[in-house]
Amino acid sequence: MESRTAELREKALFLAIDEYDESEIVKCNSFYNRFTKRLLGFIIAFLLFILLLPIYIFVSMAILIDSGMPVLYTPLRGGYKEKRFKIYKFRTMVRDADKHGGCTALNDSRITRVGYILRKTKLDEIPQLLNIIKGDMAFIGPRPELLKYTDAYVGKEKYIMQVRPGITDFSSIKFINQDEIVGDDDPVAMFEKYILKPKTLLRIKYAATVSFAVDVKLFTWTIGAVIKKGIKFIFRKSNVDQKTSIPTSQDLQDEKVYVEQYRRIERTES
């Protein structure tokens, strides 16, 4: 029973959000989401920023030597309460790379030598501690998306904007190897066809379930996923599971069955 429950919990990451009634998506209005999470995030991010200053300096110098200024990449993203903000990342591509497409291909020629390492180790994300300190983001929350996608949100998708965007969430873990999934041919088309909708569903799932317990789970899952990705990078192994990386319409249909089974198990366990 325990192994079956674990299997269903994994499959329920692709929660068929159509199973939710909008009246169930209430946790984004909780005291934890609106106040407690912000305070905890500020304190932890400030302490981590001080602790990681030597790494900030080292990475900044490496970028300067490799490809010059600027050190940071600061594109606009859709944020909390539909406010736009500049997200901070270490620059991993050549200057003005976003003018040639917003989605990164598997072997994208725009990625610099230092940028390749930063992306594989996720070190390009650590400047987002500044976003957390400012209140633009949280540690856990839906990954900030391009404005062309957030501006098009309708219905339940708008609940995504009622939680602060974060460094990691359900979708970040599920698609940690997104660049390998979209490939080289037409990464934007592949992203929009195979990844955007499932990612959006998982982001709605987070808005519907946000709590301290969920955030702790996502944090531990993320640490494990990043360590696994780092090990595979060191040994130069492919991170893509060809059988499960790209969801099909049948996969998403099957998820409704898995979710219902999972809910029945949860009711039985409680």
Short characterization:
This protein has 270 residues and is mostly helical. 53% of the residues lie in helices and 6% in strands.
Account of the protein in words:
The protein has one domain. The radius of gyration is 19 Å and the shape is globular. Helix 1 (2-11) packs across helix 11 (249-269). A hairpin with a 5-residue loop joins strand 2 and strand 3 (84-86). The longest helix is centred in the C-terminal third of the chain and has 23 residues, at 187-209. It is mainly alpha-helical and 270 residues long. The chain contains eleven helices and six strands. The protein has helices spanning 2-11, 31-51, 53-67, 113-121, 128-134, 147-150, 170-174, 178-182, 187-209, 212-234, 249-269, and strands at 72-73, 76-78, 84-86, 89-90, 138-140, 166-168. Helix content is 53%, strand content 6%. Strands 1-4 form a two-stranded antiparallel sheet. A two-stranded antiparallel ribbon has the order 2-3.
Estimated structural class: mainly alpha
Estimate the helix proportion, in percent: 40-55%
- How confident is the prediction overall: mean pLDDT? 80
Describe the global form: globular
**Major sheet: size, sense and barrel closure?**
2 strands, antiparallel
